[in-house]
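Per your request, structure below.
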């Protein structure tokens, strides 16, 4: 597969999502959910002008690029000027809200003093040709690339001028393609369109459509041809205007954060990132289940990572809180009411990650913090809705009470094993709860939130602490709603477990010589996740001496010369020397809580200044170039940005 690790821009609706490079190349296309299969290996376009060789639109030394979104929309514009031929090309990419098809509107304008004869070529390679399971057919002026269960069709409102189904790589660079066959066993094919002669100053337009449908019926070709003919009849200008209107209305509805004044320059930058976040979130959420992916995929072959287009309950809890802060309550409701109930294991825990339809995704261990985060997150979801909507959605708590109680039982057993609360307790657990190799399931060695270290972790214990606290408050909310509601017999145990957790932390996760917190019981590497004990889990007060000492150590170890913060000491992922917006925003929240406004603003400005030109936030930042290093459009980064901006509002609520 062609290596293409950075998605620079996104277009989509609730079912189809595509990513585009900074030069306008279509990188990825997913359907019918953002975490479903990847269809394209690469999809490149180019022009042949007069007698030239192929000029690739997205990779030519004579091309100058300008890319931007239409204001407050997911309609992407890429302007390409070929300075040699003085041909300007504008590419408008969008996916209509109610029609699952990528539409690419092209406008060609000749600024030369001579005629330009333009041919437009599309070089398309599907993701997999394993066992010859991919084929291609030219039919009804369309290139149909198909497998057993899908067909991806490229066509236009113009007739195909020429095509080549096999051995495309041998001739495509010349800009001249031809073939005698109409069908082939190939995953790499090309088609060409004759734009015609453009006189000096003349403009011509044409459309390209990319359509995916399920290849599951015997007569699928007949149906597909009908669908192609229908799509060709679309008024693409009207569809584009309707799509813009939809997204602008969506942004207006969800632009509800009360952001403080940071000065004219930073106000504009903040609004750009915030509005892009509002437009990104719905592309990450499965509308039917509420599952939320971490990011659109960047590494299908797992060259550099374990992939990103999955739903981690922990990440999604954080994103769901950000959804609440921008008024996307229904998506957050679905996450708890549908997705989390569907994915909870029989023993009460949640596995590492899932597909957004609720099926288990590939995992390599379990992370106890995810189970704790869910219970704590549900209560936060309830309270933010109450604060924002001025109404108590008590059914949210009632409907998810059993889910939370099962999770709490799992967390109790985890803590009992960790604390070694006597042989009698162990025997009770093993007798009462039958499960294959249960001692391993409840083992106190789990992965940390970074999925890199097994052990007993401060962040994980803090999440469990918050879960017990949230469960106390959930019971009290239910009792407040119904005086006849009886607290469970073991209600007081929740407070006892909290005390035991804090005691364990101070005895086992504290460097007593320096009076600082440490991330786990195995090593002394400084880790930004230590801040989880302050926010969001509130184990310690941010003004506690041990926290002040810990923050001082973090600043000495993790703060870089640019003002951004590393994830943890001796990190080896993607070089390990890159500041993370997540880590930097974690420090912003801490500084805001203690009233250190200047330090907080420095953190926020780092994140703002390293956003992409389109307003997207990355996972990591190249400290030398102050540009995105890895995973652009990371949901967790955008969620932390929203929560940071909404902190004043939440602090006032508290």
């Amino acid at each position: 597969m062609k290596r293409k690790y950075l998605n620079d821009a996104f277009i989509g609706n609730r079912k189809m999502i595509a990513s585009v490079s900074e030069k306008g190349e279509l990188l990825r296309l997913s359907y019918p959910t953002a975490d479903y299969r990847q269809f394209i290996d690469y999809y490149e376009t180019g022009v042949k002008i007069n007698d030239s060789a192929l000029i690739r639109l997205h990779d030519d030394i004579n091309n100058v690029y300008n890319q931007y979104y239409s204001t407050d929309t997911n309609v992407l514009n890429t302007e390409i000027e070929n300075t040699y031929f003085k041909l300007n090309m504008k590419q408008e990419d969008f996916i209509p809200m109610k029609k699952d098809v990528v539409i690419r509107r092209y406008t060609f304008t000749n600024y030369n003093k001579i005629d330009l004869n333009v041919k437009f070529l599309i070089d398309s390679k599907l993701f997999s040709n394993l066992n010859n399971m991919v084929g291609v057919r030219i039919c009804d002026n369309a290139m149909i690339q198909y497998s057993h269960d899908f067909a991806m069709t490229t066509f236009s409102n113009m007739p195909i001028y020429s095509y080549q189904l096999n051995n495309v790589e041998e001739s495509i660079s010349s800009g001249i393609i031809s073939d005698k066959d109409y069908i082939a066993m190939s995953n790499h094919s090309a088609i060409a369109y004759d734009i015609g002669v453009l006189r000096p100053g003349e403009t011509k337009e044409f459309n390209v459509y990319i359509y995916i449908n399920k290849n599951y019926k015997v007569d699928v070709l007949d149906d597909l041809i009908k669908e192609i003919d229908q799509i060709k009849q679309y008024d693409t200008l009207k569809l584009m205007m309707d799509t813009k209107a939809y997204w602008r209305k969506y942004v207006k509805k969800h632009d509800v954060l009360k952001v403080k004044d940071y000065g004219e320059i930073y106000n504009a930058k903040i609004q750009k990132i915030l509005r892009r976040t509002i437009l990104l979130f719905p592309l990450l959420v499965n509308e039917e289940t509420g599952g939320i992916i971490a990011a659109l995929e960047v590494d299908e072959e797992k060259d550099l990572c374990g992939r990103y287009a999955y739903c981690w309950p922990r990440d999604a809890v954080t994103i769901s809180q950000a959804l609440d802060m921008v008024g996307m309550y229904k998506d957050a409701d679905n996450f708890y009411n549908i997705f989390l109930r569907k994915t909870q294991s029989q023993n009460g825990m949640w596995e590492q990650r899932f597909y957004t339809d609720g099926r288990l995704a590939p995992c390599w261990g379990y992370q106890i913090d995810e189970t704790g985060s869910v219970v704590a997150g549900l209560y936060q979801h309830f309270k933010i809705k109450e604060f924002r909507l001025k109404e108590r959605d008590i059914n949210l708590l009632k409907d998810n009470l059993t889910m939370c109680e099962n999770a709490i039982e799992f967390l109790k057993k985890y803590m009992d094993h960790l604390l070694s609360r006597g042989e009698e307790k162990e025997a009770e657990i093993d007798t009462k709860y039958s499960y294959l190799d249960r001692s391993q399931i409840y083992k106190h060695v789990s992965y940390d939130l970074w999925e890199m270290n097994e052990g007993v972790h401060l962040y994980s214990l803090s999440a469990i602490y918050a879960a017990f606290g949230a469960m106390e408050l959930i019971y009290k909310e239910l009792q407040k709603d119904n005086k006849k509601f009886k607290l469970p017999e073991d209600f007081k145990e929740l407070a006892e477990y909290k005390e035991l957790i804090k005691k364990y932390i101070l005895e086992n996760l504290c460097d007593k010589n320096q009076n600082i917190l440490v991330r786990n019981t195995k090593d002394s590497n400084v880790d930004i996740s230590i801040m989880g004990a302050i926010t969001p889990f509130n184990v310690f007060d941010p003004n506690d001496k041990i926290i002040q000492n810990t923050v001082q150590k973090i600043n000495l170890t993790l703060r870089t010369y640019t003002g951004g913060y590393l994830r943890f000491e001796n990190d080896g992922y993607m070089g390990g020397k890159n500041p993370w917006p997540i880590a930097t925003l974690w420090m912003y929240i801490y500084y805001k809580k203690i009233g250190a406004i200047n330090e907080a603003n420095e953190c926020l400005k780092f994140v703002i200044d390293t956003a992409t030109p389109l307003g997207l936030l990355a996972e990591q930042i190249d400290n030398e170039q102050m540009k995105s290093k890895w995973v652009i459009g990371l949901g967790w980064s955008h969620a932390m940005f929203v929560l940071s901006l909404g902190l004043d509002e939440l602090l006032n609520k508290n």
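DSSP finds 17 helices and 23 strands in the chain.

Regards,
D.
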